[in-house]
Amino acid sequence: MRKIWSIPGGIHPEENKSQSLQLPLGEVALPSELIFPLSQHIGAPAKPIVTVGERVLAGQKIADAKGMISAAVHASTSGTVTAIEDRTLPHPSGLSGPCIVLAADGKDEFAAFEACEDYLSLDKAVLVQKIREAGIAGMGGAGFPTAVKLSPRANQPIDTLIINGTECEPYITADDILMQTQAEDIIKGTLLLAHILSQPGRIVIGIEDNKPLAIAAITQAAEGTPVEVVSFPTKYPSGGEKQLIQILTGKEVPSGALPSSIGIVLQNVGTTVAAYEAVRFGKPLIERITTVVGEALATQRNIRVRLGTPIHHVLAEHGFAEKKAMRLIVGGPMMGYALEQDDVPVVKTTNCILAPTKKEMPPPRPTQACIRCGMCAEACPASLLPQQMYWYAAAEEYDRLEAQNIMDCIECGACSYVCPSNIPLVQYYRAAKGTMRQMAIDKEKSDRSRKRFEFRQERIAKAEAEKEAKRLARKKAAELAKQKQEADKAAGVQPSGHTAKADIVATAMASAKAKQATPEEQKAKLERAVTSAEGRLEKLQQRHSDADGDMKERLAAQIKQAELKLQEAKDKLAHFTPVPTAITTVAADAPAATADPNDPVAVAIARAQAKMTMAPDEKLQANIVSLTGRLAKAEEKLAAAKAENSDKVDALQTGVDKLKEKIASAEQELAELTPSAPTATPAPEQDAAAAAIERAKAKAAAQANLSPEDKLRDQLTSINGRLEKARIKLEQAQAENTDTVAALQLGLDKMLAKQDKLRDELRALNPNAPELTDQPATAAEVAPQPAPTVDAATAAIEKAKAKADALASMSPEDKLRDQIASLETRLDKAKQRLAKAEAEDDPNLDAFKAGVEKTEAKLQQTKQQLVTSNS
Amino acid sequence: MAFMKMTSPHATRAGDTGDVMKQVILACVPGLIALSYFFGPGSLINVILASATAIACEAGVLKLRNRPIDFFLKDYSAVVTGVLLGLALPPYCPWWVVVVGTACAIILAKHLYGGMGYNPFNPAMVGYVILLISFPVEMTQWAVPRTMLAEGQDLLGPLSALQQIFLGGAIDAYTGATPLDVFKHNDSQLVQHLYASEPIFSTARWAGAGWEWVNLGFLLGGAYLLYRKIFTWHTPVSMLVTLFLLSVVFYDGGSSHSGGSPLLHLLSGATMLGAFFIATDPVSSAVSTKGRLFYGAGIGILVYVIRVWGNYPDAVAFAVLLMNFAAPFIDYYTLPRTYGHDKARRATEKED
Predict the structure, then answer these.
(1) Do both A770 and A804 map to the same domain?
(2) What pTM value is reported for the model?
(3) Do B339 and A255 touch (CB under 8 A)?
(4) pLDDT averaged over consecutive 10-residue blocks of chain A (871 residues)?
(5) Domain match, A265 and A155 both
(6) Sorted alphabetically, which PROSITE patterns does this protein's record hold (chain A) (predicted)?
(7) Could you tell me which residues come within 8 angstroms of residue B335 by beta carbon, excluding any fewer than 6 positions away?
(8) Considering CB atoms only, which of B15, B20, B288 is closest to A377?
(9) Does one domain contain both A97 and A242?
């Protein structure tokens, strides 16, 4: 036999194991109502897949595992689902939670189980999936989903499989009787688990030496197999996961880590049998062995009981004398929890129902002062100093508690057991640990917001400085231009804009003609918009019903938006009356459309252009800001997921990591850019400003030359390009399964909508335009549609002429005023949008904010310019 | 039906703090028997007087503090303080010495610091030191052991003892120097000669007439407490081993400047009482096993240093009180290594 290590501390409470071993394993009658809590395990609650009124068979899955760390729930008899509602849970808190309630029909019809003889030839993943489907969770008490434990990370090879038959808690004999009666199955199950874990080098079943019958049975069954049976001296809490590992291997599980990190997987004997039965016979976890014990019962024994059976039903079958009992415990006397109500069900982790009399477990004696005798420290299996932890817990000194490693307390209760002053030590530690966990979460949150705030302050200060620098540069440029103009005037040169002016007029005429869409066409367009909106809504709703979790909420928001849009489109259609004159006004205004704040496309283009003309470092900064915003959000989500122990933690983690990487690289780039910036800026700034003025002039000329159709074409081409890019990005994201998929999808949808709109507009102008297919536009000369209402067109031309004249004769000051007015409208618009985004918690909130800030800054600048040019 | 809501564990071991204290009192009996046999009923009267005073003071202060008197008296901690102080005081010392000392112990050293479980210093030793400094004459007159009595002289009977204690009077014939006193004041004789000439050594087997048996009695009581797991071996063993090693190192073969033999140090004065009944007071000592090793060693060193180079012949009270000061400090740096951690932490690391 191999060496056995000893654990520090430990106690020897009265075992009280013989009472429940006098009778053979029994059964209880079928109860009329069974209750299946959706959360019988550690991790996310299961998701019901039956409806109220549905008939289910024994062994039929009634709730599905939700996420990675979760377990399915199965009906344990046939009957009808009568409710899916909150019931009192078998939990220390005594709180209620969602349960599926089943009225048994007494027929006890079973669903067909899929047996498998040759299971060892199956793929490991298939076996794990079978175990997962069977809803198996640790039956020793913790209820950790077994399939998760059996899928350790690839970089953590498992070299030891330990099967826990210790059962160190007094009174409980469920595992003992299981080992006595189903030793063969335990060995088969052990070999199955070893197979799934790629045959670890050591396979060992650990049993305390107070179970000689179990040891004999298991030893006999294990003969000829690589399974080692090790018995060791009885001491509480040898059966704790960490303690058993120490006893059998001499290794310690590092603080805060899982046993798999040191190559060990540990499973309870009951879980092992359940896994074997699930794989071999296809039988899900619908029953377990539970010890029913205590002096308040007439019959004390072990029973095979259907999960979901109410505890009062079990007690009634065992002659429960309610008057004699004072407390009712689920689990053992050391770590079990007291129930306030006996209407809770037996669940996967219920290894014992203990109904002691007052004499057997008298009420706790009054607590005396701690004299720091140190008996608790002697008893602690984790080598903590309970007397110090008590002192600090009572004083709420959480830093000190942290240094005392309170988080490594396994709450075994050995300290409370030995305390001569009868101090409920474990209770203090539980409370302190809960507070500390909450404090850690709060601290993380506040740290995050503090960082965010500091970063924002920094960013604003930087932006201010940059604006100031630019303003100075512009002022200089403006002065130069003014001087030049005056010099030109003095020289008697005619304004060079003369020919350009003529061009503007010509294009205005052309576009006014072009924009004349027939009322029929406009109506058709509106109808199309309605159909498209309807289609989109339908699609979203489809996805919404398929999705779950975060995605669902996001989709719900999108649906709301889509509904609004649809409503808008319908309204428009309903109010649509063909008013030709209105159309002409629109047409006449067309040349000015580039600056029209009412046109979202134009605004978007303006924004994009603004982005393009941004200095590279500005761009990077904006980028970083937006990334940081996203990171903060992602981190929040991650924290929430962690707190809920959600199965998305990993995915979110990768997302956060990726974002961090991105930010780091962006910051690096920025760092590389900035040092050179101050030296480079002063000289080229003027040139750049001059160049920008030149460029703007050229652009204005070019745009003035473009027909609205061409403009639309341009826009369409650009949006096609962007669309292509977005698609690629989305595909990438989907392939990598990052959490940005939803956001990208949203962006893509928006762009598609825009594309539709542009196409509609273009179609209105020119139904034969080649851009109406998915091909990117090539140079295509399409003759403008003949104008149906010539009078309107002439009016438009007149107006355009007037405007062009006005523009040409405008002084720079007037231009600036004009600009200010336009900026003010834009700012209003942007603010409105921001408010809306804030209300809807739009993912692009940061971008909107940046936009508003930028517009404000520009407005300020322009006003300044005006002041300087006036003075 | 609603059941009682309680947190685990639901089972606890029988017994309470009072039982622990009763065990300590019980363990004092062999030492007390030895004291009574060799020095007469003085110590027993001391113990009874001190216990009664302790209970009275405790009850009085609890009443003043509006605490349940009955509940706290049942923890027997006051009685333990009284018993230990009574054992430490010289037999037949005036009654008011005992009363003042015990009152100081209970009121000053215990309740002014918050009562049971909150006193940083060992109450009995605080009482002892106050008496030693305030009434040096009364505190340094120890009774002569029965082996040194003159021919025809007998130990004081209970009645004359009571008369002596409550009415006073000259009992010079019954008082003498303790072995440690004798040793302290010797600077001319070799140890060998001293042992032969001084009756306190010449009538004894190893380390002073009567004293050696008293110490063995307390050792026996201490062994009983260890067996009952009332405390761990760390403090007493560490203290005794340190004291032993130092006395070996400075014995220097028994010259006139010798520090005294290891046996003298282990079996004279208050060594065993200190090691098993005073230093092991859990409230005022270090908490971890490692910490208790340091704590015990510190007491051992201080006892030796004060005995040999200091002004007092014995030093258990001072040594224990000085180490009481150091106990919280020791606690910060002697946390045990917790399961799953590579090394032990420091309790103060969060404050750095």
Answers:
(1) no
(2) 0.66
(3) yes
(4) 86 92 92 92 90 93 89 94 92 88 91 88 90 90 86 84 93 94 94 92 93 94 92 93 94 91 93 94 93 93 94 93 88 91 91 92 88 91 93 90 91 93 92 91 92 93 94 92 87 56 59 61 79 82 72 77 82 67 42 47 58 63 79 79 70 80 78 52 51 65 65 78 80 70 77 80 66 44 45 66 66 76 84 78 74 82 75 57
(5) yes
(6) 4FE4S_FER_1 (PS00198), 4FE4S_FER_2 (PS51379)
(7) A385, A403, A404, A405, B288, B344, B345, B346, B347
(8) B288
(9) yes
